[in-house]
Amino acid sequence: MIRPRIIATAFGLFASIAVAQNCAKIDPSAQLNVADGYTANAILNGMSMPRDIVFDTAGNLLVVEQGGAGIRHIVLTEDEDGNPCVASSAQLIDDRTLNHGIAFSQDGATLFVSSMGDVHTYPYDAEAGAVGERKTIITGMRSGGHTTRTLLIPVTAPDTLLISRGSDGNIDNTTVDTAAAKSIIKSFNITELLASTDVVDYATGGEVLGWGLRNSVGLGEDPSTGGIWSVENSADEIHRGGTDLHNENPAEELNYHGVLRDADDNPMKGLNYGYPACFSAWQTNGIPSGDGITVGSQFGGVTGTPYEEVAEAVAMGEVDEFCRAERQGPRLVFPAHTAPLDVKFREDGTAAYVAFHGSWNRSPPDGFRLGKIDFADGQPVAEVSDTDAVTYIVQNVDATQCPNGCFRPVGLAFDKKGRLFMTSDYTGELYVIGGV
């Protein structure tokens, strides 16, 4: 049952949540290694798998709780030193199907949320912290495999709703066709969605911004340029030419999608980024027939994917050349299986921050940290081949013990004062990061 605002304490729903009453300190659940010049303070815990987050126009924070609780409404305050802490925390929407996506219209009066199959809207009153009646505007996204549907409404293109949908399984060969509407980012006109009495089908509606994107959970906008970026979770357990490459390949990716406000003149619109046929390299040593493969370059011939048979019949290099020449490569790459789940930019565009959720099938484990990427003139300062493009500012002291006992960052959001907030789903925590 979907309810408007629910006061958590009235129903005893979230008694385990520790709120920073009077800005009392909350100890992080994991031991953190914080880089010089930065701070990482836990300000709320006890949440149920908190994922993506967004600020409303009144400065309150909304959190999607993937663990079956719906949307949480958090009122923030400050201590005597100006440090943020939680004044109150309560359930706003009770809907167990909501699992990740959340966004606001430019005026803050309409809240957008997503389940695996649908996108819904709610009228929203920021001052009252209340929602009205739900309306379903997009459907047809239900599938297996990856279930999150990330939402982004760019500041520089406020009438556009971006929706990212991942693959149905590890290697989903149906995604060679855009009609499958998977491993794709699509754009929709908000005015048309809200005015229509019909529910739009995701597969046939909207426009393709980018495809061949296995699972781009993180979407972000550089507000200084209007550039749209995504972070890619690439494939698991890959083999090429009978060799197991999965521990160090393929790389995770940072991909560029151009400027939406210049939609008619955006050369990046509609490009294919390679999946399921092509992947980016992180560790080049040991790749069979790997001459010409460099860090960040794309290669093919992976078992179970399109062109595998071609790769067996001809030189692997020809398949790799196809991937490099006919598919759009990443702007930066990250270590395999580190699982970037969000990317958010400073207002001045000088840096992007990426939440690396962490690996499940790598030995030793990797990820489980928050990273910073330097930007200039709308692009990363580093080249695609740079394996040191990310500065890690918050990480677990001992990642070999992950995922148990580790924080796992997911959602990121800047408030109006430029402070960075971050969720950790496995530990149920909300952090504020200083020094960004």
Provide the CATH topology. Answer: Neuraminidase
| Portion in strands | 35-45%
Share of helix, binned: under 10%
Rounded average pLDDT:
93
How many separate structural domains?
Answer: 1
Structural class: mainly beta
CATH superfamily descriptor: TolB, C-terminal domain
How is the biggest beta sheet arranged?
Answer: 6 strands, antiparallel
Number of helices: 4
Distance between the termini: 40 Å
- Tell me the CATH architecture: 6 Propeller
Give the overall silhouette: globular
Task: Determine Rg (CA atoms, Å).
Answer: 21 Å
Number of strands: 34
CATH class value: Mainly Beta
Q: Which stretches of 5+ consecutive residues score pLDDT under 50?
A: 1-16
Describe the protein.
- Helices cover 6% and strands 38% of the residues.
- It is mainly beta.
- It is globular and about 65 Å long.
- The two termini are 40 Å apart.
